[in-house]
Design brief:
Helix content is about 60%, strand content about 0%. The chain is mainly α. Helix 2 packs antiparallel against helix 3 and helix 3 packs antiparallel against helix 4.
Length: about 130
């Protein structure tokens, strides 16, 4: 789980670069709504990736804080939820990278909006940190 978490941390740098692209649109009297599909898709996909990465990290951190003696080991339900968020975030990062690398790329061929988030894993009793 920690390897997936560390691998997804690249999203923070890519999000900063995408914000420069977004700021450049504003300088030219544009915005994400009037941008080319590849640019708008890149921004959308990076934001989705960021949110999912943040959620995955937060649930792991909450578990680690609740039981510091088991850092690196989480209950199966927490593992499944963190995996769902982090892995789906990685998929969105892939879409963002494709859009950033190819101005002809139209990410709308790969997803529809609004995009549903990964399912929330439910179990009773739910771990307190979860």
């Amino acid at each position: 789980m920690e390897a997936l978490r560390r691998g997804g941390a690249v999203i923070y740098g890519e999000l900063a670069e995408a914000e420069k692209v977004r700021a450049g649109l504003q300088v030219n009297d544009g915005d994400a709504w009037t941008a080319q599909p590849a640019v708008g898709g890149q921004l959308l996909a990076l934001w989705n990736s960021f949110v999912l990465q943040t959620l995955g990290e937060a649930i792991l951190d909450a578990d680690y804080a609740a039981d510091p003696g088991t850092i690196g080991y989480v209950p199966p339900v927490t593992f499944e939820q963190a995996w769902n968020w982090l892995a789906t975030g990685a998929e969105w990062l892939n879409v963002a990278r494709q859009a950033a690398a190819n101005t002809d790329y139209d990410p709308r061929r790969h997803f529809s909006l609004p995009a549903d988030p990964p399912a929330f894993v439910e179990v009773e009793p739910c771990p307190q940190a979860h």
